[in-house]
Design goal:
The protein is mainly α and about 150 residues long. It has 6 helices and no strands. It starts with 9 loop residues before the first helix and ends in a 13-residue tail after the last helix.
Length: about 150
């Protein structure tokens, strides 16, 4: 489905969802790298409740929506599981992401929320994320074998 075929409320709802997500990250202190690092060092387990709460709400919403409807109301796309094979790109990419998260105390979503609460030092981490994504895209575009090509279901 092209962006022209989407319901007119699609982008405003994406924006509102992003605002809610960012507010939730800031409210739960997940936008503070020192809190996240404390969690990763097994000193503060409060963020487990934040992540578990988010997973439970998302699980119920996805399960309920797929029972009530066969397709998403704003995009018309059918509800289906997105299956991704466990290949070396997933393993190495996840490991690199985890190391970056552990070193900086932020993941991409929390980095933007952290900027929203005035933590401008996080710009170094955001710049690193963009640089890393750029380098990976450049390497992949140069024809370096990085495993199976992505399909339309990815």
């Amino acid at each position: 489905m092209s962006s022209d075929d989407r319901h007119p409320l699609f982008m405003p709802l994406v924006f509102v969802g992003g605002l809610l997500f960012g507010f939730g990250l800031a409210f739960s202190h997940m936008a503070q790298p020192e809190v996240v690092l404390s969690f990763l060092q097994f000193a503060d387990f409060g963020l487990i409740f934040v992540m578990a709460g988010a997973a439970i709400v998302t699980g119920i919403a996805v399960f309920g929506a797929s029972l009530l409807r066969s397709e998403a109301p704003l995009t018309g796309s059918p509800y289906r599981r997105r299956l991704k094979t466990l290949d070396r790109n997933v393993v190495f990419g996840g490991a690199i992401f985890g190391v970056g998260w552990g070193l900086s105390g932020i993941c991409p979503g929390a980095a933007y929320a952290s900027l929203g609460v005035g933590n401008v030092i996080v710009l170094y981490g955001v710049a690193g994320m963009f640089l890393g994504a750029y380098v990976q895209g450049y390497v992949r575009s140069r024809g370096v074998d990085t495993g199976p090509e992505a399909t339309t279901t990815d």
